[in-house]
Write a structure and sequence with these properties.
By secondary structure, this protein is of the alpha+beta class. Helix content is 36%, strand content 27%.
């Protein structure tokens, strides 16, 4: 590392034993050099004058010159914290800071991606009309599991169901999430197959639901002055435990945690989520397990039994 600095040089006329001797010394060596000159002398006087030079016969002039010099220092890492003055202003509390105060570090989380613009509208549509397209969506999931095409008969369905299902498939097809798609209007039959790509399969298998819930929560807190989300954060606790959550939200000075589930088996996940909530330090009223297609009765029953608030999507919007 090379640092350029400035060293002050003084030009002096020194009187020693009646003899005037001109000196030019760097400031860093001035003390030792001057001591050498006057080591055996009985008196030495150095006077700096800026007034009338006629007041004394002996005079000393001091002129200051600034000369650049280069110092070669050893190349070592610099601790930047030693270069920053402590801030006296109150820093805004964010999610990472809040979790850090509890000994929890965020390893990583899902960041916004370009494909969100394609997938999010489909997720929101499916979330809002799920009751109308639920049977079709189950057919699509089954076809993914068995790696086969799907067929769905709309005969006898209401006009609202037909419109919702065909529009949903059109959205999937236009977004290239389907490898093939055809709707026979005369027979009212939908035929299609899903692209065999990992992120597309994950989206249709249930990833869409998490996106739909996140969108709803953002709408719910739209009037909040400050809001921050962590999506799919991987957390590490002080004891070394690690696990991934769905959504953590900081809004209205409160911490919210939301897990999304599309399956039917809740018995295995309820104890696990309650343990996570305890480690996070999130109160029960701010910790939510959102179940797709979950009945109000089951949600109420499990909420009473476990230390987490169990809701369906409609219940989440009413409770949060």
């Amino acid at each position: 590392m090379t640092i350029t600095t400035s060293v002050v040089t003084k030009s002096l006329a020194v009187s020693i034993l009646g003899i005037s001797i001109p000196l030019t010394l760097s400031q860093s060596n001035f003390g030792s050099a001057f001591a050498g000159f006057v080591g055996g002398a009985t008196a030495a006087t150095v006077v700096s004058k800026s007034t009338d030079s006629r007041k004394k016969n002996k005079k000393e002039e001091i002129s200051t010159l600034v000369q650049p010099t280069t110092l070669e220092l050893e190349d070592k890492p610099i601790d930047i914290s030693t270069l920053i003055e402590p801030s006296t202003s109150k820093e805004q509390l964010n999610l990472a800071t809040l979790l850090g105060q509890q000994g929890i570090s965020v390893i990583e989380s899902r960041r916004p991606q370009a494909k969100d613009e394609v997938l999010d509208p489909i997720a929101v549509y499916l979330g809002k009309r799920y009751s109308l397209v639920e049977k079709l969506q189950r057919k699509i999931k089954a076809s993914i599991a068995h790696q086969k095409d799907f067929t769905f008969n709309l005969k006898g369905k209401s006009q609202q169901e037909i419109q919702s299902c065909t529009q949903y498939c059109n959205m999937l097809d236009r977004a290239s999430l389907l490898a093939k798609y055809h709707y026979d209007k005369r027979k009212k039959i939908i035929r299609g197959s899903v692209q065999r790509r990992g992120d597309i399969i994950n989206f249709l298998n249930g990833g869409w639901f998490e996106r739909a819930v996140l969108h709803s929560v953002k709408e719910k807190f739209a009037d909040a002055d400050e809001i921050e989300f962590l999506v799919n954060p991987q957390l590490k606790f002080a004891n070394g435990d690690r696990f991934e959550l769905d959504i953590i939200c900081l809004a209205k000075n409160q911490l919210f945690w939301i897990e999304c589930k599309t399956g039917n088996n809740y018995n295995d996940c309820l104890p696990k989520y309650c343990s996570h909530g305890k480690k996070l330090g999130v109160p029960k009223e701010n910790a939510f397990l959102v179940g797709l297609g979950l009945s109000d009765r089951d949600a109420e029953k499990w909420t009473k039994l476990w230390s987490i608030t169990v809701v369906n999507p409609e219940g989440l919007m009413e409770t949060i």
